Amino acid sequence: MFRGRPSGGAERVADQSEKSNDEKTFEKDGGFDDTFSSKKVEVENVSPEKQEIKNEDEDRASFLAYLATKTEKTDQGIERKSEVVKDTQDKLNQVRIELGLPVSDELPPSVKTEMDSIEKLKQVKESLDAKVLEFKESRKNEENKIIENKLKDATEDISLNSKTMLDALYERQQQGLTQIQDSDRFHMMVSGIKKLQNFDSAFGPESVSSLTNQINRLAVMFEEIQILRGSSFKESSENLEKLAYGVRRFSNSLQEDASKLSIEIEDPEMEDKIKELRYAMNSLAERSQILLQLVNRMRENL
């Protein structure tokens, strides 16, 4: 839930009893932070310890290579011993035929020893396969946790950087300025941005798709912004400046957070979902420019 000081626009409403339930709920939740500054927004960008990550990746690669080598040698041992068993049985049966005796599947002691050795090698092979599977599953879980944390950071950042824009839009309604969206659409936008932080309990490709769909719905809301028919032109240069600043801040955060999600992912399905999400985030950043362009046109008419 967004938190901040109550909007300054809310204080200018004379009759609280005439407010809609949506407006009362919005103010009860605390509105949005109306702190406005022309200072450039600084985005914290903590560089990872690349050498440590490189070492971890090299360790994983070495371990997988070790398991692959062990597995290959075990397979070769099974194949070699199986050939010895078959060759020995064939030779024994050939001797039996030459002696006029029927062929037999009975194994001599030497062959039984080889068969026991094959069974042991097969058990080793099963153990190695299990270790490889366990390692890959563990790696996938680690990777998903990294992605989940990055997505949480991104959605929190986007929500934080939307506050100035949403607060300016709310003030416009309270001050009776030129209508560019109705109250229902505004509250849908507020709700949509809040939902960005709500992941499914079981993180995975489905929850990433859900986040992508929510961002795409927000993009449509920006496409619908325009001066509403029948609305009289009434503007505040202060509000337009604040709104323009808020939109730029929101758009920049989307682009920056999308770039932070450009990471190597081993799971092909998750990789595709993250690519779709990054595309949606950049698309939303572009759609938000519709509002900025509209604000600039209204500023020209002042």
DSSP summary: helix tally: 9
Query: What characterizes the major β-sheet?
Result: none
Number of strands: 0
Average pLDDT level: 78
Proportion in helices: over 70%
Q: Secondary-structure element order, as H and E?
A: HHHHHHHHH
Coarse shape = rod-shaped
Our measurement of the CA-to-CA distance between the termini, rounded to an integer number of angstroms, reads 35 Å
Rg, rounded, reads: 33 Å
> By helix and strand content, what is the structural category?
mainly alpha
Percentage of β-strand residues: under 5%
Are there runs of 5+ residues with pLDDT below 50, and where?
A: 1-20, 22-30, 32-47, 49-53
Summed up:
This protein has helices at 8-11, 21-28, 50-98, 109-160, 163-175, 183-195, 205-223, 237-260, 268-300.
List keywords for this structure.
single chain, 302 residues, rod-shaped, disordered N terminus
Please provide a written account of the structure:
It is built from nine helices and no strands. The protein has 302 residues and is an all-alpha fold. The radius of gyration is 33 Å and the shape is rod-shaped.
